[in-house]
Amino acid sequence: MNSSTVDSNKTNEQKIEKKSKKKIKEKTAQKCRVEMLYAKIHRAVVTDANLNYVGSISLDSKLMEQSGILEGMRVDILNINNGERFNTYAITAKSGSGIVCLNGAAARKVQKGDIIIIIAYANMKLKHAKVFKPKIVFVDSKNRIKKGDIHV
Predict the structure, then answer these.
(1) Is the pLDDT of residue 77 over 60?
(2) Catalytic residue status for 61
(3) CATH classification of 34-151, choosing from 3.40.50.720, 2.40.40.20, 3.90.1150.10, 3.40.50.10860?
(4) Long-range pairs for 122-126 at CB < 8 Å and ≥24 separation?
(5) Which residue out of 3, 20, 53, 56 is catalytically annotated?
(6) Does the predicted model carry a pTM greater than 0.70?
(7) Is 53 known to be catalytic?
(8) Is 106 marked as a binding-site residue?
(9) pLDDT for the residue numbered 145
(10) Is pLDDT at 73 greater than 70 in this prediction?
């Protein structure tokens, strides 16, 4: 075997190895999942804090519906007044009531009148995440959706 044949074989092997690595990278990217912002209710006002309830955050069902937050969905709560950040799960309160009530242990992290941000995340394939648009709902001081303020 002459040196040009050896060089040619090495070049071919390198090309094959490069293609294999690229395929592995592409397959990995296809399987890759990321956690993305799914929904946000921005600047909701806490209407109550019920320490003696089992847990969760009770949310006006209209807010849940418009934001896409589901009953039982894990949500993060960001308290603008005191900087607390914690998570719990959402439960449905009466539609149109404006209720935003922290229950159980979470009630210790807020006070009635505090302004909070409620965030839900979703785990999705990377290719879906690249085009996904979260729903962001802005509310007034009575937790009513501001007209035209649902962003997708």
Answers:
(1) yes
(2) no
(3) 2.40.40.20
(4) 122/35, 122/36, 122/38, 123/33, 123/34, 123/35, 123/36, 124/33, 124/34, 124/36, 125/30, 125/31, 125/32, 125/33, 126/29, 126/30, 126/32, 126/33, 126/34
(5) 56
(6) yes
(7) no
(8) yes
(9) 94
(10) yes
